[in-house]
Design a protein that fits this description.
Elements: E1 3-7, H1 11-22, E2 26-30, H2 34-41, H3 52-61, E3 65-68, H4 71-76, E4 80-83, H5 98-109, E5 115-119, H6 127-138, E6 144-148, H7 158-163, E7 168-171, H8 175-184, H9 186-190, E8 195-198, H10 200-231, H11 235-243, H12 264-277, H13 283-306, E9 315-319, H14 334-344, E10 348-352, H15 357-361, E11 368-369, H16 373-377, E12 382-385, H17 390-393, H18 397-403, E13 408-411, H19 418-424, E14 427-429
Parallel strand pairs: 1-2, 1-4, 2-3, 4-5, 5-6, 7-8, 9-10, 9-12, 10-11, 12-13, 13-14
Uridine-5'-diphosphate-glucuronic acid (UGA) is lined by residues 122, 151-155, 211, 214, 218, 252-254, 256, 259-261, 263-264, 323-324.
């Protein structure tokens, strides 16, 4: 059993801390935000993530998981310190590392014996080296090994992804650090989860390369979907057949309004900026970014076309604001660009999302929000689905048609039945599917 600290109680810190306490270690999650720590100690979970509350409660009750704002004291008591603070995108596309650097300094000041300092946040290649330098600059005699241990969890499936990962990557220099990290992940190690040990730079690169590839895959299928519309093909059949080829795999071939979230947009920009910086441009990733941006605009154009070439003065119901289902996160969500454009074009937006409305209100306080999809679509001139929540998959098309002023819908997630829409008499569109059977 190791004593482990997670600095930063965002997504990765909270899920990682709870997950590693579940592996049997003593974990303390720390944060400078005293109020957040108080809420966590009162059993409140600041993010919506299926299964997280139960996991936290279980491990708190077992006495393995704690929360504290006393960062220095907790670092001093730890064998391993995980850095899980935010790395927002700076104005030049590169990640802003000021918080990571401040944390590295605090760790250096509290190094009172051998420790592992491990970064889980996605940080630009070369950050590990920088963190080591900062620690040494404040504590030249400090005894520590640095590890890059990127996290691959997805929001909405974070607990499952953390407890059952496809692989664990440990980037470090010494065997001692590898052995200790294998101990941290012992239950996974026993389960034969692949544990890859690499250099720090390789581990940092793996995370960006994986996220950028998935982004590329989505932009690729979105462009194929757009072409399917012109040639009369069905992108779902194309994607299914492509995915049956084991070299391609079926995952992340679902077309839509463009990817969002706190990772893909930021990480693709950061990797592209790194490529430019080293004179080794990543043209494929630069193209994926552009495609993603235009895909969102394309959705507004599609909707305008459905509405007689203008949304000006029209009431548009927007169903789904989160960047994907099972989360209340709206960071870089396609909805942000699409709602902004609709408002700019003179539409009145009536929005509904099962859980992301509070977060969306911070960005769009002036659109109208409703407590159910039925209320949002009432008397609307058109409707657009932006998140594939289950409650939208199952919505009653007859009820929808009766509630709307005009039965016009753009299904950007392709979750509604084409036959159903046709037989109810909807004017509709989707992304890359045949409109008529
Ligand atoms: C992503 C990665 O999937 C995780 O492995 C990684 O750990 C995480 O970023 C991170 O770097 O922290 P996440 O952003 O939570 O996870 O969400 P995803 O499920 O990957 O979805 C990202 C976006 O792509 C969403 O907007 C989603 O709707 C979109 N998407 C996904 C598609 O448009 N089509 C698909 O086929 C799949």
């Amino acid at each position: 059993m190791k004593k482990i600290t997670f600095i930063g109680t965002g997504y990765v810190g909270l899920v990682g801390g709870a997950g590693i306490s579940e592996f049997g270690h003593q974990v303390t999650c720390v944060d400078i935000d005293q109020e957040k720590i108080e809420r966590l100690n009162a059993g409140e979970i600041p993010i919506y993530e299926p299964g997280l509350k139960t996991l936290v409660k279980k491990n708190v009750n077992k006495g393995r998981l704690h929360f504290s704002a006393n960062i220095s004291k907790i670092i001093q008591k730890s064998d391993i310190v995980f850095i899980t603070v935010g790395t927002p995108q700076g104005s030049n596309g590169e990640a802003n590392l000021s918080v990571v650097e401040a944390v590295a300094k605090t760790i250096g000041e509290n190094l009172n014996g051998y420790k592992i300092v491990c970064t889980k946040s996605t940080v630009p290649i070369g950050t590990g080296k920088r963190i080591e330098e900062i620690i040494r600059s404040v504590n030249s005699m400090g005894d520590f090994d640095y590890v890059s241990n990127p996290e691959f969890l997805r929001e909405g499936a974070a607990v499952k992804d953390f407890l059952h990962p496809d692989r664990v990557v440990i980037g470090t220099r010494t065997q001692k650090a590898i052995d200790l990290m294998e101990e941290v992940y012992r239950p996974l190690y026993i389960n034969e989860t692949p544990i890859l040990s690499t250099s720090v730079e390789t581990a940092e690169m793996i995370k960006y390369a994986a996220n950028a590839f998935l982004s590329l895959k989505i932009s690729y299928i979105n462009e194929i979907a757009n072409l399917c519309e012109s040639v009369g093909a069905d992108v779902h059949e194309v994607a299914r057949a492509m995915g049956l080829d084991g070299r391609i795999s079926s995952k992340f071939l679902h077309p839509g309004p463009g990817y969002g979230g706190s990772c893909f947009p930021k990480d693709t920009h950061a990797l592209a900026a790194t490529g430019q910086k080293y004179g080794s441009p990543l043209r494929t990733i630069e193209a994926a970014i552009k495609t993603n941006e235009s895909q969102k605009v394309r959705m507004v154009e599609k909707l305008s076309r459905l509405m007689g070439d203008s949304v000006n003065g029209k009431t548009i119901a927007v169903l789904g604001l989160a960047f994907k289902p099972q989360t209340d996160d709206v960071r870089e969500a396609a909805s942000r660009v699409i709602v902004s454009k609709l408002v700019e074009l003179g539409a009145s937006v009536h929005a509904y999302d099962p859980i992301a409305m509070d977060n969306f209100k911070n960005h769009f306080p002036n659109i109208k929000y409703f407590d159910s999809w039925q209320d949002a679509v009432k008397s609307a001139d058109g409707c657009i689905i932006l998140t594939e929540w289950n409650e939208f998959r199952g919505l009653d098309l007859n009820e929808l048609k009766d509630l709307m002023r005009f039965p016009v819908i753009l299904d950007t997630k392709n979750i509604l039945s084409i036959q159903g829409l046709e037989s109810c008499g909807f004017t509709f569109d989707n992304v890359g599917r045949k409109l008529h059977q």
